Amino acid sequence: MPRTDSTLRLLALAALSAAPGLACALCQPLAASAQRETLVADVRVDETNTLLGVDGTRIRSWLPQVSVETGARAVPFIWAEHVDWRVYAAPPDARIGVTLLRFERGAGGGRHLCGIAQYSPAVVSELRASPDAALPPPDAETRFYYDDADRLTGYALRSRAWNGRPNPDVRHCLRYDEHGWLSELGAGDCGGTPAPQVRYVHDAGGRLLRTITYGLGREQAIEVVVHDSLGKPAQRYQRLQREDADGRPVTALPYRIVPTDHPVLVLSGPDWKAPSLDSYHYDWAIVQPKGGSGVYDAKRDPSSVLAKGNSGNGGQFALSVAQRKRVWDAAGRAPGGVQWLWAPGQILTLLRAMPDPAWAACADPANRAASACPVP
Fold it and tell me: How far, in Å, CA of 97 to CA of 99, rounded?
């Protein structure tokens, strides 16, 4: 069973103070709060365990320590706060387990997780056999940080190498807008310039409008999700990034994601150019299937064919100006309904690119208009 400070004060002082890393992980100084709780558990949180939640649900321990739940608004979620730790409690007299959790209550009475320390089973067995031995530093730990309003503002993951040396901390920062709604989850220390991972755009009343995802270590957005009035994803827009042969970043064209069973080719405009594809002496065709027919049936239906030709000796896709415009117009009228059969068994769905100004408005976290992204 959980043990509060009335019965655990000496244990907390001895165990947590003896582990310098975890002592710093408390939400407040050790002597500042009279509402703290330390839990000793005999189950690890860094393995593929499915743990019982306090509401009877199943919680996967291999999830990130902190995630963000999106619905009517974006809210940080620490899964370890929702586990029924009574099920996994160590014996009442145990001062150490493979997992040690520290909770405190904020000014508003809310219970917050301040730190998780993890020890190896070998260390636990050794120290349980030697009650007077000092606790070593944890093998790994997670520290959670809060502001004066009891909002989660960041967390740090700490670990040790095989030789006991500490690895560099992995830090994440959470920021909030002027109305108090979550606005950013970033990688890095909040005291520096954390790289944005996801930004959350709420209106002044707190309704989630969009989530904007960023490429690793970059300021350019790669995906925007528009949420409806209930917080459910309604539209998705994407602008992927890749590296060229020299390792330089290359930004692809932005487009609205539509359901499709095939890879996507984004058309830059009415004068789009066919890419280089490995196709030899194949009768290719760009089609708009009708009435639920398949791509191959549409290829045999002249009224469904928008353009066709033969790839010759290596990816020759000759399209006239009129054919390119016909394909562009069809892709606009029926998003996701135009396919290109360019080699045996190879099919692309052709989609229109978003204009750059439309993407810029859609991916701008400062734009709180509900109509920031184009409506299909």
Answer: 5
d(CA 115, CA 22): 7
The tens digit of pLDDT for each residue in 310-335 reads 999 888 899 999 999 999 999 999 99
Rounded Cα distance between 313 and 315, Å, is 7
The H or E element containing residue 10 is helix 5-18
Helix (H, G, I), strand (E, B) or coil at 96: coil
- State the DSSP string of 151-181: -EEEEEEEEB-TTSPBPPPEEEEEEE-TTS-
Element (H, E) at 195: strand 195-202
- Token digits of residue 216: 């690793």
The total number of residues shown for the chain amounts to 376
Q: Tell how far CA 243 is from the center of its chain.
A: 21
pLDDT at residue 85 above 50? yes
Collect all residues with Cβ–Cβ distance below 8 Å to 190 and sequence separation of at least 6. Answer: 145, 153, 154, 171, 173, 175
Q: Give residue 27's pLDDT.
A: 66
**pLDDT range class, residue 12, cuts 50, 70, 90:** very low
Phi, psi at 321, each rounded to 5°: -60, -40
| Contact between 348 and 340 (Cβ < 8 Å) | yes
Query: What's the rounded Cα separation, in Å, for the pair 68 and 301?
Result: 49
pTM of the model: 0.85
Task: State the Cα–Cα distance between residues 142 and 24, nearest whole angstrom.
Answer: 11
Q: What is the pLDDT of residues 90-116, one digit of tens each?
A: 998 888 999 999 998 877 777 899 999
For the chain, the straight-line distance linking the first and the last C-alpha, in angstroms and rounded, comes to 55
CB of 240 closer than 8 Å to CB of 222: yes
